[in-house]
Batch of 3 targets.
Target 1
Amino acid sequence: MSHVFTDVPGGVTAPKGFRASGVHCGIRKNTEKKDLALIVADCECAAAAVYTTNLVQAAPIAVTRRHLLNGRARAILANSGNANACAADGEENALRVCAAAAKELNIPAEDIIVNSTGVIGQRLPIERIEAAMPELAAALDAGHGGADAAARAIMTTDTVKKEIAVTFELGGVNVTLGAIAKGSGMVRPNMATVLVFFTTDCAVSPGLLNDALSDAVKVSLNRVSVDGDTSTNDMAAILASGMAGNKLIGAKNGDYEIFRAALTHTATRLAKELARDGEGATKLVVCRVSGADDEQTAERLSMSVTSSSLVKAAMFGADANWGREMCAMGYAGARFDPSRVSISFSSGNGEVAVCQNGCGLDFDEDKAKLVLSGKEILIDISIGRGTASAETYGCDLTYDYVRINGEYRS
Amino acid sequence: MSHVFTDVPGGVTAPKGFRASGVHCGIRKNTEKKDLALIVADCECAAAAVYTTNLVQAAPIAVTRRHLLNGRARAILANSGNANACAADGEENALRVCAAAAKELNIPAEDIIVNSTGVIGQRLPIERIEAAMPELAAALDAGHGGADAAARAIMTTDTVKKEIAVTFELGGVNVTLGAIAKGSGMVRPNMATVLVFFTTDCAVSPGLLNDALSDAVKVSLNRVSVDGDTSTNDMAAILASGMAGNKLIGAKNGDYEIFRAALTHTATRLAKELARDGEGATKLVVCRVSGADDEQTAERLSMSVTSSSLVKAAMFGADANWGREMCAMGYAGARFDPSRVSISFSSGNGEVAVCQNGCGLDFDEDKAKLVLSGKEILIDISIGRGTASAETYGCDLTYDYVRINGEYRS
């Protein structure tokens, strides 16, 4: 099934029924950097979220889980600069954030999805958040300005704002899906990732919204690794206002499949953006493993390659040292026959085959260097068995990754 | 049980009955760099080895496995500069290495332990190795010169030669144990590690030698991570000449326990040396997790901390960002209660407690910076449950790691 998803401007306010805002409330020292984001729907929404599998979970995750038990929500509120994880009064402060927003927005506190991102282990400066709430609410905007501010307010070490919106047709009706994301470091999602907030005007039941989100995240955001560290605050959440006017999706029918495909398309593009803007990264590295007996094997082998420090450093140096891919697959914990492996590299600068049937090919080193100097590298590996395949998304390991993480709190 | 293990000079030739040598045969371009090492016993030895668990295994590993089926060997031969993994004629060339050495030494080819280390995927320049064999055999030396040359010949990106020898008493007899090792990159041993070659004059049966080696490696070399990449060529091997004159260890008695303790002591010191000299490393990072219900839990949590890129970069930057330790434990896949975790950092410059019962402590940032600027950092974590503990060994993540691995083949 192939559908047309057309890019539109507007980010999370592109779908009907959403306003957004972002302000600087004083968590971050830099007063130019927004650190508090809000997305609000005009009506109650079907809502769903997936969360980090880290055993250490930030306080707001627990609060959001409870708030989403009924599959309904109205707003998303997130701060950057402080993770509210392993911090004094964590849950109390997450509840205070919700209470302050509820009062200002005149909605139930239980209808708020809350999260935080930033340094672990420091008390959330709740007073500053409470004090900024009137300003944040007053700044709500159904135009692109609000969505832009919200997207910027959740950024941490991200260098690029991550925002997307697409429209597609559902039973003759135009439906829109928007999203913002932040990533950069501590990125090795597992069941959820980083912060990603979706909005849509699609009419869809909460249960199916949850299924579609889980499925989409599994093959997109869960296939990103910047540094192998699964964060304590990962969350992907979605609000569906139903204001597009489509027939409510209440079963896993054709409309559901299209909606799920739109969500997967959007999440996959964000996954690539997150990898491309990984801390210190100079390039996006996509690893496709094909010829597997099943998708899980392909995913595991591919993830091991994109996660390998040695592969990542070689990508930075544009060094076609393919033995590192072979080595990373070898310790991935999945079965394959090394003597049936073929590997090639490609980018906007061309393609070069480096290994066939497990042995090195004579290749032009200058050409390989040129290929690997591209900004988007595909490591294409076939393990020569079945027809299953999987792609995962990573980046190179650079001096800047070390610099950023050697002085993160400074 | 506590024993006295006294350091002695001599490396792998310190035990009675061993000669060693190392030469440059032309695998490495730099003619100053020795690339071929040989250790030979004066008599047939009890012998054992443990190997990498990487599914992709270098050709010499298969050959050595067959040669050690009878628990006997006479010599160890290893080259650096080429891994003979995923390479044309791999096994044939590993056999040719053994044949050439056997002819020169007048011993059976099946009595030779063979391995390689270096770039994966390139054909072993077997002709150069064969041509250098007479020179290598002629250079054999029972004095420290030979051991030193062998230790240097197996180095790859190591910056420091790794060599150790200790003596201890066994039933009134002095027994000696020597070892050389190489590590540096692609280091995340699993069941074996890097290249480590032990020699001893202890009289011990092959089966018990194998058990003692496996046990020692499990709590030492298998607890090292430089970059999380388990190599295709990892091997730890031991030759026991029996020439010390002790009563043959043929059962798991008191003598066996002392011998095993000596091997564990030696392997643990080498593990620390390997971590300290990890590619680009400026410091040794030891993580001790205590208060666990069982050792496996402690080991898993500890290994997750020493393997985390974010922890490693923070150690480089001397940043007491302890949330990263907490986060790394959270995704380790072992159970613990975050609210019972305490964390402190120490080094030669002092100690600083940063987290108690899962929450941050107010600590002096200047003092923490001073502590973490030490050359040997202990991350001391208690999870507040049982009495089991484990230490693992790592290093910091630095600009030089990126530099070395961005241009490894150049």
Target 2
Amino acid sequence: MSTNPPYAIGLDIGGTSIKAGRVAAGGEVTGQAVFPTLADRGPDAVLAQAALAIAKVADGAGAATCAGIGIGIPGIVSASDGLVRYPPNFAHWGDVDVTGFLHRKTGLRVVTENDANCAALAEARFGAGARHRNFIFVIWGTGVGGGIIIDGAIFKGPGGGAGEIGHVSIDRNGPECRCGNRGCVESYIGQRYLSMRVAAILEGERPSGRGSAILDLAGGDPARIEPETLSRAAEAGDPFARDILSEAGAMLGVALSTVANILDVTTAIVGGGVSAAPDFVLRAVADEMRSRVLRPHRDSVVVERALLGNQAGIVGAASLVL
Amino acid sequence: MSTNPPYAIGLDIGGTSIKAGRVAAGGEVTGQAVFPTLADRGPDAVLAQAALAIAKVADGAGAATCAGIGIGIPGIVSASDGLVRYPPNFAHWGDVDVTGFLHRKTGLRVVTENDANCAALAEARFGAGARHRNFIFVIWGTGVGGGIIIDGAIFKGPGGGAGEIGHVSIDRNGPECRCGNRGCVESYIGQRYLSMRVAAILEGERPSGRGSAILDLAGGDPARIEPETLSRAAEAGDPFARDILSEAGAMLGVALSTVANILDVTTAIVGGGVSAAPDFVLRAVADEMRSRVLRPHRDSVVVERALLGNQAGIVGAASLVL
């Protein structure tokens, strides 16, 4: 192995697919592969797929040397022993030693971290976070995940499970979240909840929904309404779509104001599927956050769009060993 | 100065009084003095009073040497330059160099920190936190303050303002808090709000209040209802007082579950005036927190009473230099 290794392998293990990439020291992805995760077949199957993905991208590296392997995976990655616990939607999963298995398999250095934390780290090194030493990273997609960057590094918390921004309750009597709590911001603005809510409103709960173009954009089927549908409708000038997205942004702003008051971190970087939404949504996040944080924080609230998109997971995982 | 200094001076600068103490390395307070803060006369007056308080407790130290002076004060103590900003209820206060002034005045090492953080540090070193490397410290009194201890040290946050547990919003549409946000847990359970709420209920808003002994305990004047009144009534078996205190405890538990999900810290230590409340109140905090935190945290939720009482401020301030 060279003293100045030219690349690392990053794995982004999701519920349906494992994305693997060769990542250079500057953050460029120079080779990629995607394998099905087989999460329903249990940890052995997932680890075998991960090993295949690693072999595939390493194979394209030619004579270049590998600095190691970084793994991003949902769930809690224990800060003390590196075991992966509680990845949601992974079957038969107890405490699994992903790190040890892949180290023994490859002989390379392996570091494992929660996937949202990896994406946060990628933004910190190579994305929107490069200008900020401290920020709250939000992945706003199917759910709402997050990571906290303090002094340029992931704030893992004592057990490795810090940064669950989606499970900040913004209304103690709010709707039940899949986590068992009530009023979590995820339960209002996560993709599945947001879409259900829009469908309910369009089906008559709120008169403002009548005449909206959203249903047409979803082919007449409320179940097919996705945040992207809302974004397109909003960009086409649909006032109802704008309302719903602004309201969702404001709810995220409420949660972020609480996080800012706890951590004294006032910069938020928003990634994930919904981050492709029009600018006014991020403005709604920032306006609400600014109006609610403690006075000394007001002038320093900044909300920015993540820059790395889908590759943040791979790049951040590789950053763990780069 | 000796290499093993036998004492430090701790100052707890509050809105009405400055408490000063000589504190030995083991945390014992070996001498004390109290001076009025004169907060309404501006920073020069406050600093002069602080210098008097220091001189007074140093005077009793005999030949013992002093390791330095620790200052606890409300507001944000900047992490970068140590300036004290925004102490609530201190008149004519901009950014004040408390540290520099007292260092020049005494020639001793001076460290300044937010007062709630000082109390948290005192509990970490010498109180209920001595068994916990990581905990959320709550001062539940007139307001709701807090401090975060990670790895035995104060988590200040990048700007020095972290740990504002009282300003976790538990209902985005809740009552307006003095900070400008809505639904902050302080706006439900801080002493002034709690008392007002009880008075309103007793005056007829809720039938459950009728027949309660609370009003008698407050001499018939709803404005004189204090948390202690509630505690006494609850201990005497008054069901309404028990309800109100349990409900307040549960609200604190909601806020703490959010803090736990963000920080991955599941131990809470509760101090301040209301912490003298009966055990069932702390149980209500713990039960609610446990029912709401993310599943991996459930088994590790612990809520304990602070041990150091009123002296936590002095002892914690001294700990900054001990």
Target 3
Amino acid sequence: MANVTTVPEVLTRARDLVVPAMRRSIDMLNPQLRSIAAYHLGWEDAKGESTGSDGGKGVRPALALLSAEAMGARGEYGLPGAVAIELVHNYSLIHDDVMDVDRERRHRPTVWAVFGIAQAIIVGDALAALAQQIVLDPRLLVADGQVLEGHQAALLLADATAKMIAGQSQDMEFEGRGHVSFDECLAMEAGKTGALLGCAAAIGAVLVNAPMTTVGALDRFGVELGLAFQAVDDLLGIWGDPKTTGKPSWSDLRQHKKSLPVTAALSSGESGVEELLELLAIEQLSERQIERCAELVERLGGRDATNELADTRLLLALDALDEAEILDDARRQFIEIAHFVVERQF
Amino acid sequence: MANVTTVPEVLTRARDLVVPAMRRSIDMLNPQLRSIAAYHLGWEDAKGESTGSDGGKGVRPALALLSAEAMGARGEYGLPGAVAIELVHNYSLIHDDVMDVDRERRHRPTVWAVFGIAQAIIVGDALAALAQQIVLDPRLLVADGQVLEGHQAALLLADATAKMIAGQSQDMEFEGRGHVSFDECLAMEAGKTGALLGCAAAIGAVLVNAPMTTVGALDRFGVELGLAFQAVDDLLGIWGDPKTTGKPSWSDLRQHKKSLPVTAALSSGESGVEELLELLAIEQLSERQIERCAELVERLGGRDATNELADTRLLLALDALDEAEILDDARRQFIEIAHFVVERQF
């Protein structure tokens, strides 16, 4: 597997197109909603002062632009898809932070922690509606956008959003019960994270009227990449460095998250599973108990299994990519992004 | 003005089509989300037992079906629009109840009061996504739905949803400040309530490819009707009988809602405005103070002005309807619905 340590050029290039388009989109909101969104995106502080930052690393929007280029079209034609997906992704983060009672994200207080739950709900709702408006009427962002297939793109996005929401709902249900199998967890994360990445990798192609077989292959590439990404994310959620993740140590264990490492450990059938189940049933875990959970998950093979899953799903993603009839240069960049996503430092 | 005391036949007829389609739609959700939605819609109790009820009076879906019939098409062709609007309307109710900390709706505990805030957020999100899926792919509900204009209908719905959200956001902002003018309040309610009713009155016509002028006229009819409806609703929110509204007496005053009667009173310029402003600035009003607010709003003309607004907006709605080129029989039914909406008992 190639070792990519630098940020792929395509991400930087995508950002140059996506950041101004995101700003134009957010400016369509009313002033109250706009300023909360600008806070969440890292553009402004809680007082509305500019931070000089333009937010996130933008894997999703880069995939969206690339999937238009992959069909020989201008990357700009993927822009309505890229922005819509960023909006949906950020709406889900804002709502998830309320639902998970997370007070911090990206080293900053979350929207609800600053502005309250009501504002977090309404700004999330606003971003979701804005995403649909933009993908349905690509002319809002692309001057000659009437040639773009907004209808099919909107359907792809709505389907992915529905799957993402169902995944989040399952995730919440998992927290409330004892045993969750590794397969159940995988299915949940295919929805929660995979669906939107699949949409990202295909939406640009849909906008420029790509054939269904290629759209399907790109979508599968993104879903598998999403699972690989999520495996890495779940590892970071337990063993990630708080300085890098911006979350407390063993964050997912504190929240009783039945993540991939935990469910892999629970499905191991080895001695220690009972102790782990008992610990996870305790409502308020002490620091010692949380540390013990992390030890048990590792000893029961949860960490190794999740590392392995990341590798397998990356290979499945690359297999799916092979089936897409796309330009070679785009294929190379898709592969670069895939490696970058899975090889995040922690 | 005709005095319509019975429920228009079109509402009953619409319900026969919409209720089964709503059930089929809600069944597309995963089991957790489905059962919470079924609770909210009044179909099931909190334990998942059937209540034998099929929910709401369904003015919005009736308008949607009628607007397809108005163009000479089958009412069924308006069904994806009718269901999508019901879903958006209910998603907004579920989220609004969290934001407004309302524990009761339609004589029952609200979703968040039963299932918690996290579940209320996610089920609302799920209904919003489902609405878009259904309008974008009308074949989900109508066998020969591929002839329908799902793209334009989805755009109309997304625009209306965005306006509704902006209206709710303004409404929340109003609660936090002292003076809100009558015009500001009217603009807010045009978004919060008018937009979705406008969409309802036009979406069936859009689905069957009606000309833009008629779509525009029907939309205006719905927006104006929405304002008339909201005027009545705001009167009920203060002076409505708790037995009928399912909410405590003077409910909107308890919440410091800057509703139409309150803002009309505040804009009256008469003596008493200062006292009302001072009362509304008190965070926790006593029962005596709430009663005094209601007295002041009435004495300052807020009740009369809102009654008058309901009449004016009804006339404007009927004017807009005159401009729509639609079948006479549908026009008669639109008028029936309009009177029914404004002449609710209280």
